[in-house]
Amino acid sequence: MLSSFNYEKLNAILRDFYTLTGIRITIFDEELNELTSCPQEMAGICRYIRSNQDAEKACRACDRAACLKASALRRPYVYRCHAGLTEAVAPVYMGNLPVAYLMFGHLLAGESAEAAEAGESSETAEETRAGVIRSCAKYGLDPGTMKELLSLLPLTDEETILAASRILMAVTSWLCIDQMISLRRQELPVQLDDYIEKNLDRPLDTELLCAHFHIGKTALYKISREYYGEGIAEHIRRMRIERARRLLAENENLSIREISEQCGFTDYNYFITVFKKYCGESPARYRKSV
Q: Could you give the CA distance from residue 271 to residue 274 in angstroms, rounded to a whole number?
């Protein structure tokens, strides 16, 4: 585990989220081990689904896939789980490392107020419940029990789900600001990320990093994939572009060429190409827009 957690503060902020939204919230560490939740007990329908061994495995696989998706997006990800219930997950980043995940669910999504007023056709609550029962039929779960438990699950409209996901993102920031989560500085992935951050203006490659940390290429690639979600070269490029974005926004006195050099790009044209790939526009246009 890369990080340490202040459980007293974590439980307090999870309680606050639940008080505001009435939605169950859970926090996982970066290895997707559940740390704590509020309330502790999940909805009856989920307990029943997870009572089946195959369904339990599918739930865990679904949680993992959602966390990886949110990590790649670096923002909350709202989705339907394998059983047809609506959930959302947001990654907690410290620097460039995902150190935890906040997840809420298991919601029965209803239509938005706007859709209802406009008379637009959308999935009704009964159709959603029927869809959950169909999705779980392969696990041999009793349809009658499923229907009874689903009837106890309140309907949550789309606006509430989206508002809760935005609050979720605010909570992820607060976790770090209030030091509820701290990195264990002795851990190699943390040291590696720190070293790259401090040396972005210099040449960085696999050979140099392996020599500095006395590890092999295989170990370096494994760390990069496992903790950063991408290859080490891609991770370095992403960090360089993130620095370039900050410099473009905060330092008007620096020319774009100077910024490219401070971010470790020796070829100015290559910097322009990479920046466009990641940001969808040129550095000059990006600077204007911010």
A: 5
Q: By the 8 A CB rule, do 50 and 20 touch? A: no
- pLDDT tier at 116, thresholds 50, 70, 90: very low
Topology match between the domains 3-183 and 188-289: no
Q: What is the CATH number of domain 188-289?
A: 1.10.10.60
Long-range pairs of 168-171 with CB within 8 A, sequence gap ≥ 24: 168/17, 168/25, 168/76, 168/88, 168/90, 168/102, 168/104, 169/75, 169/76, 169/90, 171/13, 171/17, 171/90, 171/102
- Residue listed under structure tokens 């935005």: 166
Choice between 113 and 275, residue whose per-residue pLDDT is larger: 275
Beta bridge partners of 182: 4
CA 119 vs CA 36, 100, 152: distances in Å: 41, 41, 26
SS3 label, residue 263: coil
- Residue 247 CA, chain-centre distance (Å), reads 25
